[in-house]
Amino acid sequence: MRLALSATPTQTQTAPFLLRGWSPAEVFELAGRLGCEGVEFHLRNSSDVDAVEIVRLAEQGRFEIPTLGTGLAAGIDGLSFTSPDPFVRQTAVERVKGHIALASRTRSAVIIGSLSGKIGQDPARRHELRNAALACLDECCRSAASAGVTMLLEALNRYECDYLNTLRDVLDVIDELSAPNLKVLADTFHMNIEEADICESLRLAGPRIGHVHLADTNRQAPGHGHLDIPPVLRTLHDIGYTGYLSFEVFPIPEARTAAADAVRTVRAALEQIPAAAKDAAEGNV
Ligand code: LER
Ligand code: MN
Fold it and tell me: What's the pTM?
């Protein structure tokens, strides 16, 4: 398993990303200093970064950009796949298509998280808006498939989303759409709130997990809360997960300390899994 820092060029004070408002050069410099293999960029618009620049910086430092996040388009612009307004839904889809075009250049997967939105309590309305969201997702998956890009659907806690709360909920959508390029994003912050048993849910999703957001229970760096991290990493290893652990966490007490703490805690936990440590040392991941 490889490690990624989360970053955004946007000067947000509220989003759970380690590096907020940093330039790509600064972001990759810190990733290199900490020995991380990747950087996850969260972008309100795909044009918020210079594609040529981030590809050049990534290639120079042999970094990957495993994922592009889209949630800022929900948080800042109010876009949503479940808006009752078809124009807002289509604008959300078009926004994601921008991320997909960028992802085909950065070789990233594209995250659908906060754009999933809420569908309310009325059963008929729930059915209608869930279908509307699935239609948006389907359009994104088709566009991504023709660009050779993987899409990731994230399970979110109940305060952010009211129909995709568990990995089971996400698996059901993946089955319904039967999109071969749609995978599960497992975020341990949300899972701590929604799953009865985090490790059992990871085993349930197994090879369909495409990406992991690793955050502690308080959404700070791993080690800052009370998540029992070693069993989570051991389970991911046991199910054959070799992808990224991305630190989508708040920069508390500040970005450099939080990033260093996350890397130190997770590297130490990975070393407790002999096979995983050996694979990483041999570059077999
Ligand atoms: C939102 O809480 C989250 O976890 C993000 O990854 C989704 O956009
Ligand atoms: Mn997340």
Answer: 0.96
